[in-house]
């Protein structure tokens, strides 16, 4: 805390002479640095809200520490020495060498790129690349991320340049008094130099403040002739570089606590005389955990390995592949970045690119590929709430990005839910809410007590299972799971039209009976089952469920619409004509092409939302001022084009203007743009 405070004070003093940076396409509340898995999740806070663990400095890389998504500082320092003078390009070391002027920041779906100017003599381009390769299981399985630093002279002269980058033991545990061990090494053919560090006492399956407590961290670079390294206390190691431009090539034999003379793992590269030709230096950061998930599967609790362990014999092999793959990975990243940007422009406009390209790596960064190539699973952590595993109503807002990038991944996400419940590890007739109270323990709820959202999750499972099967023409998946899908449909037939007093996915908003939006999800779920029955040759069920769903949707329009209101709209709950809410569950009808709900309902909502639009969006419902980005986007996706644009431009404004320091939140005040605090 102390060093952070000093650093921030210094940063604000230096800011008097800062040249302002540009931010393209926007200034996110937190800038993704290394964001690849639930545990490889480093960010640069940018907002100004002190309540959010900040304040950030506005989106500048030097002068402020990066943090884990949950706010803890992750030591990560970058220095550069030009003609004997040292400058800071990343982090907030104490003492603090002159903070560089950041002139530009830009993000795409996989990259965050900062441009720094060194006294008008040298330019630096620092690119954090977290690959997203949804159709390439091998690459997607690797929980590693790149930092590429390109340096060149801008004044036509030659300059003597040395580059420095370190990370500290803070990455290894959420407990700063935990003892860490380390070693320095080079790969067998001498091409890559690496620091490896890890908790001395490995706590398998454990987390502290959401950081993981087992596995090995790697920090690596090319093992060139001009590379030096050092392990030691933060001040010793950084001091050695600022004094001499090189490190001592020494180890530190005193394994100790993270907060005891902070163990720091450093590299320095002597670039020699730098001219106008750009020189690049590549670093890799990542976490190797051979065991990924504890899973209560078909035959009881088993340890599920990280999928990469099937592709690489050792951790070092995985590291070596990743690091030497940079040219290919960068090309694949550009293809992905361009696809997301051009599809977003085609589907919306430049504002839509602001959202999609910021969300893509964050969404995949909540997941981890596990299992084996024959039986792969995608596990998902409920990040920034309670850490549940495989939460069905968190998969639901997430699943469109899989439908867009690779629907097969949706199957790998749903499979563990089917396996656990079909094996009888869940005693209730309705769908489970999640597969475990805290990641990475997917140990289920064999006592039947989870955070029950029965109507919500039955509807979600039916809709998502059909969405996957339609995209992949996988009818056998529907046959395989017909019994349990049919069982969940029975629940919906009994409960969907007149929903009991219960919570929805928006649990923080409170329980309520007769929720209009929850009812329509259940009814759409019944119609989805009719299609499933049709596709699997169950004609009687298909006809029966279709007739029930159509009957219900007719009744729902009488119960859930305030026809006399001006303009008319659906209510938060039946009969509460003065209320409204985002009718986001209508999305399933369009997604699955059911044609169950009349177009008049879509038109009515499209005309209504602009009348209750606030500065940054439409409130979730009339009980609160806050809203949710995921549900606004579901609503926008099925609205008239003017209403769609209105939602998207307000959300883009939220991203650019929110004082929040958190990684793109889904929950914020529609009027002020602050991230919502729940109590
Ligand atoms: C940063 O920019 C200011 C204003 O242009 C300038 O005075 C200062 O020397 C620059 N600092 C560095 C390290 O380039
Ligand atoms: C070192 O090994 C890696 C991984 O096997 C390989 O990609 C690379 O080409 C090798 N380099 C040399 C110089 O042999
Ligand atoms: C997971 O379960 C193990 C016991 O099997 C426990 O020690 C650990 O603390 C749990 N992890 C979390 C994050 O709750
Ligand atoms: C560094 O020191 C530790 C602790 O004494 C030792 O285990 C390790 O082998 C040393 N590593 C190197 C590369 O010398
Ligand atoms: C290594 O450093 C020396 C001394 O600064 C320099 O002359 C040489 O160009 C550097 N080599 C490379 C490959 O950067
Ligand atoms: C569970 O056990 C059964 C019977 O031994 C076996 O056929 C099946 O493959 C096992 N399933 C898994 C997922 O291990
Ligand atoms: C239709 O489904 C409901 C709910 O499962 C069931 O009670 C009813 O008997 C079914 N009717 C026919 C004709 O199959
Ligand atoms: C729910 O709506 C139904 C139909 O309008 C009504 O009969 C019932 O009383 C409502 N339940 C509650 C708790 O308001
Ligand atoms: C499925 O629907 C199609 C088109 O409505 C119909 O022709 C077919 O008979 C149905 N099949 C079953 C098994 O219900
Ligand atoms: C709500 O509006 C509907 C139609 O718009 C009307 O039939 C109903 O009586 C109203 N309910 C109340 C409580 O005012
Ligand atoms: C949509 O917006 C455009 C531009 O503001 C306007 O001309 C048009 O009338 C709007 N369309 C509808 C259906 O509101």
From TrEMBL:
The keyword Signal applies. Residues 350-676 form the Glutaminase A central domain. Keywords: Signal. Residues 110-343 form the Glutaminase A N-terminal domain. Residues 1-19 form the signal peptide. The keyword Kinase does not apply. This is Glutaminase GtaA. It comes from Lepraria finkii.
């Amino acid at each position: 805390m102390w060093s952070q405070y000093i650093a921030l004070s210094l940063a604000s003093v230096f800011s008097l002479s800062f040249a302002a940076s540009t931010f393209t396409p926007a200034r996110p509340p937190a800038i993704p640095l290394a964001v690849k898995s639930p545990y490889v999740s480093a960010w640069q806070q940018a907002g100004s809200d002190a309540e959010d663990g900040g304040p950030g400095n506005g989106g500048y890389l030097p002068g402020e520490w990066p943090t884990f998504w949950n706010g803890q500082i992750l030591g990560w320092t970058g220095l550069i020495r030009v003609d004997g003078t040292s400058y800071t390009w990343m982090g907030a070391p104490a003492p603090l060498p002159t903070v560089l002027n950041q002139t530009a920041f830009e993000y795409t779906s996989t990259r965050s790129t900062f441009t720094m100017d060194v006294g008008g003599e040298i330019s630096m381009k620092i690119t954090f690349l977290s690959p997203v390769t949804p159709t390439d299981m091998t690459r997607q399985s690797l929980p590693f991320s790149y930092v590429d630093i390109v340096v060149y002279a801008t004044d036509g002269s030659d300059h003597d340049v040395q580059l420095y980058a370190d990370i500290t033991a803070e990455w290894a545990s959420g407990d700063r008094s935990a003892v860490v061990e380390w070693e320095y090494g080079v790969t067998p053919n001498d091409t890559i130099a690496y620091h490896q560090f890890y908790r001395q006492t490995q706590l398998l399956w454990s987390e502290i403040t959401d950081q993981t407590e087992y596995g090995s961290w790697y920090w690596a670079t090319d093992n060139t002739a001009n590379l030096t390294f050092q392990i030691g206390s933060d001040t010793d190691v950084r001091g050695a570089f600022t004094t001499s431009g090189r490190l001592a090539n020494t180890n530190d034999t005193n394994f100790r606590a993270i907060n005891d003379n902070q163990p720091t793992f450093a590299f320095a590269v002597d670039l020699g005389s730098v001219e106008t030709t750009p020189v690049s230096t590549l670093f890799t950061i990542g976490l190797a955990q051979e065991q990924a998930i504890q899973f209560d599967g078909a035959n009881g609790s088993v340890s599920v390995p990280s999928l990469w362990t099937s592709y690489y014999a050792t951790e070092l092999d995985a590291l070596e592949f990743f690091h030497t793959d940079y040219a290919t990975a960068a090309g694949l990243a550009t293809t992905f970045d361009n696809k997301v940007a051009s599809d977003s422009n085609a589907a919306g406009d430049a504002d839509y690119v602001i959202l999609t390209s910021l969300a893509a790596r964050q969404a995949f960064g909540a997941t981890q590929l596990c299992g084996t190539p024959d039986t792969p699973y995608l596990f998902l952590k409920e990040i920034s709430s309670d850490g549940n595993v495989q939460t069905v109503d968190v998969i639901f807002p997430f699943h469109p990005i899989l439908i867009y990038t690779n629907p097969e991944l949706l199957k790998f996400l749903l499979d563990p839910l089917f396996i656990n419940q079909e094996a009888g590890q869940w005693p209730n007739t309705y769908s489970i809410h999640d597969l475990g109270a805290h990641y990475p323990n997917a140990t289920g709820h064999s006592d039947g007590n989870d955070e029950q959202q029965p109507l919500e999750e039955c509807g979600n499972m039916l809709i998502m299972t059909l969405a996957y099967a339609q995209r992949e023409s996988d009818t056998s998946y529907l046959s395989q799971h017909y019994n349990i899908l049919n069982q969940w449909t029975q629940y919906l037939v009994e409960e969907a039209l007149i929903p009991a007093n219960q919570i929805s996915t928006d649990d923080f908003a409170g329980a309520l009976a007769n929720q209009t939006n929850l009812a329509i999800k259940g009814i759409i779920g019944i119609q989805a089952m009719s299609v499933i029955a049709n596709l699997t040759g169950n004609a009687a069920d298909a006809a029966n469920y279709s007739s029930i769903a159509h009957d219900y949707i007719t009744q729902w329009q009488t119960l859930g619409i305030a026809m006399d209101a001006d303009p008319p709209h659906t209510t938060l709950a039946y009969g509460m004509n003065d209320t409204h809410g985002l009718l986001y569950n209508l999305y399933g009808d369009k997604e699955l092409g059911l044609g169950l709900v009349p177009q008049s309902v879509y038109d009515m909502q499209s005309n209504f939302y602009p009348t209750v639009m606030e500065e940054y969006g439409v409130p979730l419902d009339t009980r609160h001022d806050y809203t949710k980005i995921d549900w606004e986007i579901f609503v926008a996706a099925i609205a008239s084009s003017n209403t769609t644009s209105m939602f998207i431009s307000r959300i883009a404004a939220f991203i650019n203007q929110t004082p929040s320091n958190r990684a793109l939140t889904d929950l914020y005040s529609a009027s002020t743009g602050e991230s919502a605090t729940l109590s």
